Amino acid sequence: MDFTSIEDLAARGGALGAGPALMLICEDEVEIGSTIQHHLAAGFGAIVLAVPPGIALPDPLPEGVHRLSLDRRPTAMTTVCVNALIRARPAGAWTGYAYNAEYLFHPFAETRRIGEAMAFCTEERRDAILCFVIDLYGGTLDEGSVGVDREDAWMDEAGYFALRRDSHDDSGPKERQLDFFGGLRWRFDEHVPADRRRIDRAALFRARPDLVLRPDHTLSVEEMNTYACPWHHSMTATVASFRAAKALATNPGSRAAIKGFRWDGSVRFEWRAQQMMDLGLMEPGQWF
């Protein structure tokens, strides 16, 4: 099924069904194929590719993968596309979003599918799974490299921290919400705008009619931005992402200044959810 516009997706997206669905924002052509395959294997029954002009897709697309053709690249492409998908989804349907060259991992992903994790969170009366973006980067940064190397992928095992998140009305910190930082955005913060340094993202959630994804990767329902419920720890997930490495390796200002991404805190990325759980970057909550 192809969607010819944002309006077409909002009108006909209900045909995707009520199972787990994912929006993939295709910013460029890097690793689109591997991103699709990873999320199909994770258990997403429907994947919608938001494709601006000039982006080539794998041909043919696997079953369950649908194209949203954009006639231009919207200024706020993420919010425009994801919010259209939210409007189309049945109330309560689990929905997620990511970018090409990003890979969602949920707890115990080696043996359990994403639908099982979402079903558990529903039973726990949780309507969202907070995700942390873990920056991936190639082991070497040669001239002309875009910082992406799945066969030699590295990540930071240290340097992550959180700060309190204050309310916009100066009433104090928000309950059970924090701003999380780390990875390439922290180590090379002089090249990253302040509003793009956070690594927390409300990337998995249950759709509802009044829900809106905001430009800062938070949702309009504040409880969906919390890292835990009031009575116990809640499940979190991770997004292993080459997106920051791509930007730092290709943007003119940072490209000349950065000779490589590896440091003493780097470890090889093992493409296993268990690695991120062992490092404390992902929380299974009460799910065992």
Give the topology, please.
Blueprint (H helix, E strand, L loop, with lengths): L1 E2 L2 H7 L8 E5 L6 H11 L3 E6 L13 E5 L7 H12 L5 E6 L2 E4 L8 H10 L4 E11 L14 E4 L4 E6 L6 E9 L2 H4 L12 E7 L29 E6 L1 H8 L1 H4 L10 E3 L4 H6 L10
Parallel strand pairs: 1-4, 2-3, 2-5, 3-4, 7-12
Antiparallel strand pairs: 5-11, 6-12, 7-8, 7-11, 8-13, 9-10
List keywords for this structure.
single chain, 288 residues, alpha/beta, Rossmann fold, 13 strands, globular
Number of domains: 2
Rg over CA atoms, rounded to whole Å, is: 18 Å
What kind of assembly state do the chains in view correspond to? single chain
| Portion in strands | 25-35%
Element pattern in H and E? EHEHEEHEEHEEEEHEEHHEH
Largest sheet: 11 strands, mixed
How would the global form be characterised? globular
Low-confidence stretches: none
In short:
This protein is α/β, with parallel strands linked by helices. The chain is built from eight helices and 13 strands. Helices cover 22% and strands 26% of the residues.
Describe the structure.
With about 290 residues, the chain is an alpha/beta fold. It has 2 domains: about 1-100, Rossmann fold (3-Layer(aba) Sandwich); about 100-288, no CATH class. The chain has 8 helices and 13 strands. The protein has helices at about 5-10, 30-40, 75-90, 115-125, 185, 245-250, 250-255, 275-280; strands spanning about 1-5, 20-25, 45-50, 65-70, 95-100, 100-105, 130-140, 155, 160-165, 175-180, 200-205, 235-240, 265-270. The strands form 2 sheets. Strands 1, 2, 3, 4, 5, 6, 7, 8, 11, 12 and 13 form an 11-stranded mixed β-sheet that branches. A hairpin with a 6-residue loop joins strand 9 (about 160-165) and strand 10. Helix 1 packs parallel to helix 3 (about 75-90). It is globular. The model has no long low-confidence stretch (mean pLDDT about 95).
